[in-house]
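pasting input
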Amino acid sequence: MASDTKLTLAKLAELAGVSTSTASRALKDNPLIKKETRLKIQALAKSHNFSINAAASRLRTQKTHVIAVILNLIDNTEQSTTDPFLLKLVGELNQALNAKGYELLLSNSFMASDDWANYFIHSQRADGILVIGQGKSTAKIDLAAKSGVPIVVWGDAKTQAPYPIVGGNNFQGGYQGTSHLLSRGAKRVLFLGDSEHAEMQERHKGYTQAHAEAGLTPDPSCTCAIDITSKAAYQYINERIKSNGLDFDGIVCVSDMVALGALKALKERYVGIPSDVGIVGYDDISLAELMHPSLTTIRQNTQQAAELMVAQLINQLENKPTESQVVETSLIVRRSTKHD
Amino acid sequence: MASDTKLTLAKLAELAGVSTSTASRALKDNPLIKKETRLKIQALAKSHNFSINAAASRLRTQKTHVIAVILNLIDNTEQSTTDPFLLKLVGELNQALNAKGYELLLSNSFMASDDWANYFIHSQRADGILVIGQGKSTAKIDLAAKSGVPIVVWGDAKTQAPYPIVGGNNFQGGYQGTSHLLSRGAKRVLFLGDSEHAEMQERHKGYTQAHAEAGLTPDPSCTCAIDITSKAAYQYINERIKSNGLDFDGIVCVSDMVALGALKALKERYVGIPSDVGIVGYDDISLAELMHPSLTTIRQNTQQAAELMVAQLINQLENKPTESQVVETSLIVRRSTKHD
DNA sequence: GGATAAAATGCAATCGTTTGCAAATTTTTT
DNA sequence: AAAAAATTTGCAAACGATTGCATTTTATCC
């Protein structure tokens, strides 16, 4: 069927009896070329299964139409490869990027060299960078941003930075979850998560604010710093109960995975949910509603998040102004906090 | 700090006082170049944050060192963006590819044009293709394979095909789950999944075989064709119980997500697990052990799977012989089938 | 020290597209 | 019918790295 020798634009042009420049323009529907010529060449290309050599095109145009997406993992906690939320976001970014004519080069902070600007942009592997997660340190992000490459970060949008950050409204999320529990009578609500992340700190502020509005001051021992994994949550809750007894009646978690770990520990000790302890997750991963009891959680609109990130990145590519943006969060009330 | 003009190999060479050819060789540690020259140029490159232009390099060498990973989604069921197993595999592939010096271009069957060979390979966007999932039809895969591009598929390894397929031992998995339930006294075991996939058919054979060995013949009404989503499973179980009553005492599911949906339906109807119905999932996603009761499931070693896929792909890139390979599966017994 | 071998470096063509500009063709105008 | 304008097309120079081959430099040998 197909000819055995590699088909280049030059050969295609020869077949069509035109010059390569005409062929090139015809394929991108340049109105400079007469319409019938365009159509003829496009048809010929289709019938020969021709496609432009991307390497050559990129070299010539200095554009790759590729965006690097970096999962900014935290140390060695296996959060990322396991966390459905992050991977979901990757999926959404893939959609959003494709819709704008870009492809997605996947990487993560362990793999990529430390100098992202050089590795991805100056080497012409990609036109821009999307970072998922601020991590515990923004050193690499800052470094990349300083060299002026197009970059957008998913994280805490309130953080002041020389690059746009798209993120959920973490303060509001923390506030919503906490005040929901307090309004249902909880008196001692745990905040379960890692306080080193900017995002988590914001949520914690919301947690504090909710308490203040209820005329309460949260006990410092209720703020529990743990790794953002279900295993860590499971262990923490187990041990806390073992040593302190059940000294709390509500938990606000920084992710659904964390909530699930906590939930498991509580169930194993026959703690009633939500009767004894109400529990609120974060992210609304698909499993949240499948749990038993189903999990009350804070939903972040990942599709919107992905679209905003891509939009901000494209702004940078086009030298338009950019800004950090916030994705609204909503409280999804389910059985883990709701009595029948 | 950095010079403002783009640094090319030629300029770097000039700075070092050598020719571009020498610089090029030095950077790849070619022993043709005197050791001290090599080191000097490498140091210079590092200090100037130089990195080779990938587009130019790819054009010249005709190699991209990029592999396209295609999530071969099924119709419009949202299986993929939601299914943790598939995304986990993507993560593992990323690791495995990076370890071999390749990068990962993520795509899915909705996005990519239909002619994968042309779009990814002939256009020099990637050197090879990894497909996750055979889908309901292998048309696109066959088409790509026919044009001779390096390609490896995650699916049912027993399928005869002109390309290597890496997959779990689906027959064994189906057999293990079923006979586990039967050995614990189940008499009517449902098979919950989609029978149009080759993988699922193999598992169903294992299901049948397990019955045969126990001297049983499964009732055809126990083979339930549903979409591979938790929602579909939830609905199916709900409706079945509504119309038939509880006419089964075990369920073998084709994925953990399906199992979770079924579990939810059973719990809502206060069916005892495992006392009334035992349930077995597939994949051992991270949530399986967090469920309550924790979920008995069939584990597939995704890391090994990713490594095998990459190895087979590299074989093709190097014109070495390839073969389909099987990842062993193991039964992980948890509370959803185990009485205390 | 001169001839020969070995080691190190440089020349220049090449990969396949794109695009500014010039050239050729067609259409319009006078 | 010739000149001017508008429309189409083609020429040729980039883009930046790689590599076979030729050339220069250094080491070895008699």
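fyi Residues 8-10, 20-21, 24-25, 28, 52-53, 55-61 of chain A lie near DNA strand C (CB under 10 Å from a C1').
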